[in-house]
Amino acid sequence: MSMVPTLLSVEGLTKSYGGVHAVRGVSFELRAGEILALIGPNGAGKSTCFDMLNGQNIPDSGRITILGEDTAGKKPRAIWRLGVGRTFQITATFPTMTVRENVQVALVSHRHQLFNVWSSTPNFAREEAGRLLDLVGMGAYAERPCGELAYGDLKRLELAVALANQPKLLLMDEPTAGMAPRERIELMRLTASIAREQSIGVLFTEHDMDVVFEHADRILVLNRGSLIAEGSPEEVRGNAQVRAIYLGEGLVYDARHRDGAHA
Amino acid sequence: MAFYVVQFLTGLASAASLFLVASGLSIIFGVTRIVNFAHGAFYMLGAYIAFTLTERLEGALGFWGGIVAAALVVAVVGVLVEMMLLRRIYHSPELFQLLATFGLTLMVQDIVVLIWGPSDLVGRRAPGFKGAVDFFGQNIPSYDLFLIVLGPVVLGILWLLFQRTRWGVLVRAATQDRDMVAALGVNQKWLFTSVFAVGVFLAALGGALQIPRDAVHHAMDLRIIVDVFVVVVIGGLGSITGAFVAAVLVSELNAFGILIFPKISIILVFLVMAVVLIVRPWGLFGKPEAPARRTPGLTVNPWRPWTSNERLAAIAALIVAAALPLFGGNYALTVGSEIAIFVIFAVSLHFLMSVGGLASFGHAAYFGLGAYGVAFLAKLAGLPMIVCLALGPLLGLVGAAVFGFFAVQLSGVYFAMLTLAFAQIVWSIAFQWVAVTGGDNGILGVWPEKWAASPSHFYWLSLGIAALAVLILRIIVFSPFGFALRATRDSPLRSEAVGINGKRIQWTAFVIAGTVAGLAGALFAYLKGSVFPDNMGISLSVDALVMVLLGGVETVSGAVVGAIVYKALNIWLVSQTDWSKLVLGAFIVLIVVAFPKGIVGTLQSILSRRRKSSSSNSSLLTSRIETAE
Q: Which of A123, A129, A214, B509 has the smallest set of CB atoms within 10 Å of its CB?
């Protein structure tokens, strides 16, 4: 295990708003090739935690180390430059460009050509953009206007954009939110296979327990800002405290899932 | 000491009208999210109608009744405008709303001259407030004391209206979340109309109450609207308390600014505004706004570079244009040069607006700086023309670098207002710093050298530079930088998440646009042989906006067509009619309502519809299959 490098390490992460402790002393680690899920009921502090990791929120205290660099309080673009790809809960793409151009913008940035005013972007890293689109199964849509895509395709495009800087770490905020059940499973399968192949570490938050238990190697459970459980899907499923928090939902789900699995 | 107290009280009295107009603008913005440029026009109408009514009606009752009646009449006009025009553009991008209401302003300017004539009108003194009060040897007009009391009283009435009535609760709710209010079954249409009526009533009342203090004239609309923009930006759009505090602040700055810095009194207020915007971009009492709607976004057709046929067509058009001296006279060539110069100016703003999503309402500042740059170099340093043309625009570059740095910290209407304010700063420097700029008299005798002096040579020079400017900006649009700029416009969140420093990209774009505008200004100085403060005035900034809009905001080079059509029409109109503003204003309103895509944009969508209809059956089928999956 010690051979696998630590991509992300979080120590004592804390953030409060007024008197509300949104996140309290959260610590965890993520290793290369590992798929880690961050779950918890609404208001548990998942989003606050996530925003601090990707640079949209500044922690009150605690340490975030990504690929050996302290990133607490750094801008999202600086964190991206370290080799961190991200996707958003509600997709963020460039709707007035084609699908290929969306990926090309990320490649332009990755190659430090943002202030190049002379070359032609439509020909910029065309093949590499095509390869990334093929990887997520969007190759056939390369010349489509991005604004015309169906939501599921936008999610896949976002994944291709997130992979453009050859990231070591992917941060995905509710990657399957707003998708049809079958699409969810497909997208996560795709993500997991790419992550394993390129040994990218993935951290994602998720509400859909099907997705979490099927794809996560390890699960972190947040409640009221604190980590209350951490472990493999089996360990977390057996944890009495987690069951108590998820109340009926978790139990019912659990029984159903097992029945389904054995049927 | 008594003198300063009197000066302070005069400031407070001026604040009353300013507060009435600003609170009206703020209330309207809060609910409808429209920055009503025409608010100054309603203020002016209020003053004119009150003048007529108070002249006709006798006695104290006639005077005060006339004031209130005037405000009510204008409120009815406001309701008609809201129902006929604004209801059509509530969902348009902010830029279109600003332009449509600016078109209205232009129309009203000519209408008041048509009805009341061009000369200043001095109104009646207010019955009961004709004298002055002695204050330690200084005189204060008693009408000023009345206004000082009136301001807080109106604030109190508005507070009661918003806190204690059902209508007020609905307005406050709609200010916070109008979609939610609509979802709760409130009739939005009439809520918006009534809010607009109240806002316009306040503006007209502000205008009507001014007549005992100041002459009524047909330029009072633009003067108040700039002050009002400053007030609502400092106070925070949507906040009435903010409007009150800022109105007092601005009026006092004006009152004391004249004493302390007689030369730069105008600048003082704008500097305070710039500082407030940088420290609290949403104003002292305002709340941070949700991200603004994107300026383009009517369609999602991605841009593409010219095909070889289109390139040939562009070259052919350029050759035809270059042949003008063969059949055109000197007048035609001078008009042609002016149009070419405005093509350069329009494409520079188009680059900032369409590609960068930054609608500047003060782009003329950089045009004017380029013109003054040339004038300084030619007249003071006596440099050759080629050197002046190359170095003059650098003044535009410097101005754009300084102001752009602050402006790109903001977006949407705040960006528009800040750029407008900066342009007014530059204008007031040119106007007030007589020793260097010659003030209103400008700098004369900036003539081209012999090689460029003949109309045909100057035309070719302008045409050549225009073609080059269009070409270079097109190359930048399709360069990696151009894509980074569009990415920042399309999605700030995503572009930041792929490592793009959006502010720096936008700042660079601002500097590029300012420099190109400066180049246009430099040529313009040689064309006219002189420079004046009006070369950086609001109307020139708006001309540029209309050219871009007319060509099509969402096209790559539509501004070229927009500039040619608009400038030709403008020159023709001015020569044909005395009421060019009326026609122009109506024209602007018509474009915004009927052709929001502009000439080139409309042509493109017709073409693409035709192209699509030929293959529509098959594509419809595939899209159905896709949705089924």
A: A123
Note whether A165 contacts B300, CB cutoff 8 Å.
no
Q: Is A115 on the interface with B (CB under 8 A)?
A: yes
A28 interfaces chain B, CB cutoff of 8 Å: no
pLDDT lower than 70: segments of chain B: 263-266, 289-301, 612-629
Residue ranges per structural domain of chain A = 1-83+168-263, 93-166
CB contact under 8 A, B483 and A104: yes
Residues of A in contact with B500 (CB under 8 A): 77, 105, 109, 114
pLDDT, tens digit, 9 for 90 and up, residues B401-439? 999 998 898 888 788 888 887 888 898 889 888 888 888
CB-based contact B481 A115, cutoff 8 Å: yes
User: What's the predicted TM-score (pTM) here?
Assistant: 0.86
Are the beta carbons of A122 and B487 separated by less than 8 Å? no
User: What tokens does A186 get?
Assistant: 């497909």
Could you tell me the residue ranges of all domains in chain B?
2-218, 322-564
State ipTM.
Answer: 0.89
In angstroms, what CA-CA distances link A103 with A48, A153, A156, B53? 28, 14, 11, 66
The per-residue pLDDT for range B473-485, each reduced to its tens digit, is 999 999 999 999 9
Q: Three-state SS string across chain A, please? A: CCCCCEEEEEEEEEEEECCEEEEEEEEEEEECCCEEEEECCCCCCHHHHHHHHCCCCCCCEEEEEECCEECCCCCHHHHHHCCEEEECCCCCCCCCCEHHHHHHHHHHHHCCCCCCCCCCHHHCCHHHHHHHHHHCCCHHHCCCEHHHCCHHHHHHHHHHHHCCCCCCEEEEECCCCCCCHHHHHHHHHHHHHHHHHCCCEEEEECCCHHHHHHHCCEEEEEECCEEEEEECHHHHHHCHHHHHHHHHHHHHHHHHHHHHHHC
Check CB contact under 8 Å for A97 and B302.
yes
Nearest to A92 among B304, B491, B501 (CB): B491
Q: Considering the domain delimited by B322-564, tell me its CATH architecture.
A: Orthogonal Bundle (1.10)
> Searching chain B, which residue's CA lies closest to the CA of residue A55?
B497
Contact check, Cβ <8 Å, B490/A75: no
Q: Which of B299, B477, B483, B623 to mutate to test the interface with A (most CBs of A within 10 A)?
A: B483
Q: What is the CA radius of gyration of chain A?
A: 19
Mean pLDDT across chain A: 87
Fold for A1-83+168-263, please state it: Rossmann fold (3.40.50)
